[in-house]
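Task 17 of the worksheet. Students: predict the tertiary structure of the chain below and write it out as structure tokens. Keep your answer in the requested format; marks are given for formatting as well as content.
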Amino acid sequence: MFDSVKPYQQIPFQFSLHIQASPKSKLEHISYLAEGKDDPRPELLKLLKKHLDTKGSIVAYKAYFEKDKLNKACEVFPAYGE
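Model answer:
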């Protein structure tokens, strides 16, 4: 369906972030859900890079799974690898 994708490969297409800038600040909710038939990975990676800071903690339900899918997406789109 997309370049560099294998059959049954898992493709990230959505995220939901709850960002707390400081211990006393309110949570800010940011989400993304891909629409259409284009590869969702470039836009997803671009928005994650925009909204995630270089400091602080990231908590994920299955962090190893999430990290693996994002790393594989960054292999195809290396501009977002940092």
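Marker's comment: The chain has one domain: 14-80. Residues 14-80 form one domain.
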